[in-house]
Design a protein that fits this description.
By secondary structure, this protein is an alpha/beta fold. It contains eleven helices and twelve strands. It has helices spanning 32-44, 60-69, 99-113, 132-144, 158-167, 189-196, 235-255, 259-269, 281-289, 297-306, 319-322; strands at 3-6, 11-14, 18-19, 49-51, 77-82, 84-86, 92-95, 118-123, 148-154, 170-176, 199-203, 273-274. Its EC number is 1.1.1.-.
Length: 327
């Protein structure tokens, strides 16, 4: 597994990490035994960056990861997130970037993860009621206390990145980035990351599974799968996006790789660290194999011809969730 330096603060991670969210929430049924086996296999394959959050469950995903890493914590770079408030019984309250909540949230995460530190601590979403300087200042204090190694942000605008970075060095920004979602290329985020030496962690690098080529109908999803409310998976949007995936599949077949591998290799080629999510070993192994796929100039041209920036149909979230992005 290729290792990459994430940002300019000294954090080294595997080029491809593992998004653990679906093991506990949002993507239909779960299977703890298979999830634990998938994390185990990821470590065997050299995947070091394991991504979770308080809100995945809530708490359940952190607890799962803590169980998986018991006795071998040093083998993983653990990333988790704060800023979406829950009471200790799991009741959702809303955004909360106040320093006192950041401290409380981290201590709770450490208990659930069974560790004394988090390697990469993200602000999951910006609290519009709290200056980013106050929130990141509190996160910086946690670094000084030894409870956090590096600070990150998720789904933030360029000016927020700059303000945060001026308070405490930001190691990584996590945002959605894939052949289906390239907004950061023209909204200033990617340019800001390059300028400031901040790493990019791409979540949903397979377009929430669309770019795997395995989804053929909205009926493929379980009743409790949140993609049933995702605009890109509905009506005419679904049909248009599926036509793009068919073209990606065609290019992948010529290259003798899967559509997932081609899509992931493209993200990696852009310099990002990708964290495709899966809860099954067979998909993990397919995804990890993408790190050995070379993307040539000819490949880039062919991909751009069928999946140019802006080709995707539909917003990436339902309206109520879109409001929380780009804080």
């Amino acid at each position: 597994m290729e290792l990459r330096t994430l940002g300019s603060q000294g954090l080294t991670v595997s080029a491809e990490g593992l998004g653990c969210m679906g093991m506990s929430a949002f993507y239909g049924s779960t299977d703890e035994a298979e999830s634990l086996a998938t994390i185990d296999r990821a470590l065997e394959l050299g995947v070091t960056l394991l991504d979770t959050a308080e809100s995945y469950g809530p708490f359940i995903n952190e607890q799962l990861l803590g169980k998986a890493l018991a006795g071998r914590r040093e083998r993983a770079v653990v990333a988790t997130k704060t800023g979406i408030e829950f009471t200790d019984d799991g009741t959702l309250v809303g955004h909360n970037g106040r320093p006192e909540y950041i401290r409380h949230s981290l201590d709770r995460s450490l208990r659930h993860l069974g560790t004394d530190h988090v390697d990469l601590y993200y602000l999951h979403r910006v609290d519009p009621q709290v200056p980013i300087e106050e929130t990141v200042g509190a996160m910086g204090e946690l670094v000084a206390a030894g409870k956090v190694r590096y600070v990150g942000l998720s789904e933030v605008a360029p000016q927020t990145i700059r303000r945060a970075h001026a308070v405490h060095p930001i190691t990584a920004v996590q945002t959605e980035y894939s052949l289906f979602e390239r907004g950061i290329e023209d909204d200033g985020v990617m340019a800001t990351l390059h300028e400031l030496g901040i790493g990019l962690v791409a979540y949903s690098p397979l377009g929430r599974g669309f770019l795997s080529g395995a989804i053929t109908s909205p009926d493929d999803f379980a009743a409790d799968d949140f993609r049933r409310t995702d605009p890109r998976f509905q009506g005419e949007n679904f049909a248009r996006n599926l036509a793009v995936v068919d073209e990606v599949r065609r290019i992948a077949a010529v290259k003798q790789v899967s559509p997932s591998q081609l899509a992931l290799a493209w993200v990696l080629h852009q310099g990002a660290v990708a964290i495709p999510g899966t809860k099954r070993r067979r998909y993990l192994e397919e995804n990890v194999a993408a790190t050995t796929v070379t993307i040539t100039d000819e490949d880039l041209a062919a991909i751009e011809a069928v999946a140019p920036h802006g080709i995707v149909s539909g917003d990436r979230y339902a309206p109520e969730l879109m409001q929380s992005l780009n804080g």
